[in-house]
Design goal:
Elements lengths: L1 H25 L28
Length: about 55
C-alpha cells in the first residue's frame, strides 16, 4: 500500500509540474483578433434558403 501512495504522489507531482510549465510558457502577448464584420448588403448573399423542419 505504501508503494502505491508514493507512486500516486509522484504521478500527481509530475502532472502538476507539466501543467505549470505549459502555463508559464504560454504567457505573452495574445494575437490580436479582428472583430467580426457583417457582409455588406444583408446577412446572406445569393439564393440560399435554410429549411429546417420535416
Amino acid at each position: 500500500m505504501r508503494k502505491r501512495q508514493i507512486l500516486l504522489i509522484a504521478m500527481m507531482a509530475a502532472g502538476t509540474a507539466t501543467f505549470l510549465l505549459a502555463v508559464l510558457r504560454r504567457r505573452g502577448p495574445l494575437p490580436a483578433v479582428p472583430p467580426y464584420q457583417r457582409p455588406e448588403g444583408g446577412e446572406r448573399e445569393g439564393e440560399f434558403e435554410l429549411f429546417i423542419g420535416s
